[in-house]
Write a structure and sequence with these properties.
It is a single chain. The chain is built from ten helices and 14 strands. With 333 residues, the chain is α/β, with parallel strands linked by helices. Strands 9-10-11-8-7-6-5-4-3-12-13-14 form a twelve-stranded mixed beta sheet. Helix 1 links the parallel strand 3 and strand 4. The longest helix has 15 residues. The mean pLDDT is 89.
């Protein structure tokens, strides 16, 4: 019999599980990774069976209704469709199947989009921070823009809907491409998500003056393509629709207008550490429970105890802010 909903100390129901399947990646985006990253030994990564077990407890015991696979780059994990199929088969206490989504850089998505869709993946977010080849290569340290754009086309062709393209906007780097991305999204029928630059870069070079406020991005696009806001719930993106009916876009103002008050998610790193916030300083070891003979009840208690430590929110831009010791790729985006 299903247990109660999982509620944190601030009354927020936790129902969204982000799972990193690997810390490895085929790009080296400057806001996420260093060029010379040291990766986890493969034996330290959770197996597909261990990932499924954590997810099953969250879904069946606590009514989680969304799972998002992340990395590193999730498509570099071999046979990912098998894991998707395992997770897509989960159902909550009400019998509703869980929604399984993925965030990817798109480089190899064209090779696996169809099989992931057939395995039960419902939605996909593709990261792309410039539509200009040389600039893309500079940001990612790899000349793979063509492959990413092929991945966007493959996702659309495979029937994912909506396909979202994530753009991390950085002052003096790509902040002049907002309208270009809006045009791209309107042409391709995909939704662009502009994300404010957060202090999770491996090089520890982030500063507040590199942040492009979401309001600035929206204003630049609205001057060319008139917009109106869309009402939305606990999702992090503030959404806008084009007045001419050509779709919509979103902005995620993680720095200038944090959405912590509505946060409904927790994260599990590739080696099984549960984090209650992207910027959390503490981690909770689920792998030890899994590998030391713990029961599902033990696992549920560990998850519940971790959620009991969830804080009100990060303090980016405040004197009290302390950045976590891990970069984005090591946590899971």
């Amino acid at each position: 019999m299903a247990g109660p909903a999982l509620v944190d100390p601030f009354g927020r129901r936790v129902r969204d599980l982000r799972i990193s399947v690997t810390d490895r990646c085929n790009l080296r985006c400057q806001y996420c990774m260093a060029e010379d990253m040291t990766f986890l030994p493969r034996g330290e990564l959770l197996s597909f069976e261990e990932i499924e077990r954590v997810a099953r407890v969250c879904v069946t015991r606590f009514g989680f209704d969304g799972i998002r696979l992340t990395g590193g780059e999730p498509t570099v994990r071999a046979d990912l469709a098998t894991l998707v199929r395992m997770l897509a088969g989960l159902a909550g206490p009400d019998g509703q199947p869980v929604d399984v989504a993925m965030t990817t850089n798109g480089v190899t998505l064209g090779l696996v989009a169809d099989q992931l869709r057939q395995a039960g993946l419902s939605r996909v977010n593709i990261s792309c921070d410039s539509l200009r080849r040389e600039r893309f290569a500079s940001i990612t340290r790899r000349d793979r823009l063509g492959a990413v754009l092929e991945g966007v086309d493959a996702a659309v062709a495979a029937g994912f809907s909506p396909v979202k393209v994530n753009v991390v906007t950085m002052r003096g780097v790509n902040d002049d491409e907002a309208v270009d991305f809006a045009s791209f999204g309107r042409e391709k029928g995909v939704q662009i998500r502009f994300i404010e630059f957060m202090p999770l870069d491996a090089d520890d070079a982030w500063s507040m003056d590199q942040v492009v406020p979401a309001t600035e991005t929206v204003a630049a696009i609205a001057a060319v393509y008139p917009l109106e806001p869309v009402r939305h719930g606990a999702e992090p993106a503030a959404r806008y629709r084009y007045l001419d009916g050509r779709g919509e876009l979103g902005v995620i103002p993680s720095v200038t207008r944090p959405f912590c008050g509505d946060c409904d998610r927790v994260r599990v790193t590739a080696e099984g550490q549960l984090r209650t916030c992207l910027f959390a300083m503490d981690e909770h070891d689920l792998r030890a429970v899994l590998r030391d003979g713990g029961s599902d009840d033990d696992l549920a208690r560990a998850i519940e105890a971790a959620v009991g430590t969830k804080w009100a929110g990060h303090r980016i831009g405040q004197v009290s802010f302390v950045r976590p010791g891990r970069s984005m790729s090591q946590i899971g985006g």
